[in-house]
Amino acid sequence: MILVENVVKLFGRFKAVDNVSLSVAPGEIHGFLGPNGAGKTTMIRMIAGLLKPTSGRIMINGQDLARAPIAAKRSLGVIPDRPFLYEKLTAGEFLTFCGGLFGVDEENGLEPRIAELLDLFDLTAWRDELIESFSHGMRQRLTMCSAFLHRPRAVVVDEPMVGLDPRGAQLVKQVFRNMGRKGVALLMSTHTLEVAQEVCDRVSIIHEGRIIACGTVPELRALAHSSEQLLTPIFLKLTGGTGLREIEDVV
Ligand SMILES: Nc1ncnc2c1ncn2[C@@H]1O[C@H](COP(=O)(O)OP(=O)(O)OP(=O)(O)O)[C@@H](O)[C@H]1O
Ligand SMILES: [Mg+2]
């Protein structure tokens, strides 16, 4: 369960996140959509405990992130938009290191867990290779292995599909759906609206730091007074069009 209550984030006088409340129930895949600069990464970094909210409260699986940060983060998996990986470690060494951070060690099944995750994300053959030789998509898949090692009950993902090939994207969608079936609460920001429409149970739309709409795709359609079946035109309508100048005049 992820619960965000009245969260505000100020950078100086600029309000990047403006009184955001949202909840992701166990088993729910919740899409977090919004134009560039809307505040998605800022919100996700606050849920991950990487940025401190100016005000408001964040609860992860019943634990208050401000009061009990270690307990809250213990059951959380985080996949950032720009993952930090140690270039001079091999994939296997990196996962052993991450396991240690979450208290997963040899006694509680670290080795088979690493093996099954590398297998799931098609990286078994790369286990002993240095991360510096990994392509962008391989880094993304390794980051997912590291985030899921400790079987988190809540997951936040910032732009999971960037850089993945169609097979990788398909795999990630299936992994997310499976986690949802197993009761994991998953919050996912994405610009790939087809993916959001395909896998998300509910969607929140953030615009200029504020949640302007939240619901299932049919609910958003009703909110936008739109007959469209696709999320993209509904999203554009809710967030005020394409925002592009007359293309003809510019290029
Ligand atoms: N550390 C910071 N200091 C000052 N301003 C910041 C900082 N981090 C983010 N911002 C500002 O907050 C706003 C929201 O940024 P954020 O990265 O959360 O957007 P986003 O919704 O993730 O956008 P994108 O779709 O491009 O990833 C932007 O105007 C950004 O410039
Ligand atoms: Mg972002």
What's the number of helices?
Answer: 10
Radius of gyration: 19 Å
Number of beta-strand segments: 10
Structural class: alpha/beta
Distance between the termini: 47 Å
Spatial order of strands in the largest sheet: 6-7-8-3-9-10
Level-1 CATH class name: Alpha Beta
Q: What is the average of the pLDDT values?
A: 94
Distinct small molecules bound, one entry per kind: adenosine-5'-triphosphate, magnesium ion
Uncertain stretches: none
Element-level helix/strand string = EEEHEEHEHHHEHEHEEHHH
CATH homologous superfamily name? P-loop containing nucleotide triphosphate hydrolases
Please, how many domains? 1
Largest sheet: 6 strands, mixed
Please describe what this structure looks like:
With 251 residues, this protein is α/β, with parallel strands linked by helices. It has a single domain, classed as P-loop containing nucleotide triphosphate hydrolases (Rossmann fold), CATH 3.40.50. Helices cover 36% and strands 24% of the residues. The chain is built from 10 helices and 10 strands. The strands form 2 sheets. Strands 6-7-8-3-9-10 form a 6-stranded mixed beta sheet, sandwiched between helices. Strands 2-1-4-5 form a 4-stranded antiparallel beta sheet. Helix 3 runs parallel beside helix 5. The longest helix has 16 residues. The N and C termini lie far apart (47 Å). The mean pLDDT is 94. The structure holds adenosine-5'-triphosphate and magnesium ion. The site of adenosine-5'-triphosphate (ATP) has 10 residues, from helix 1.
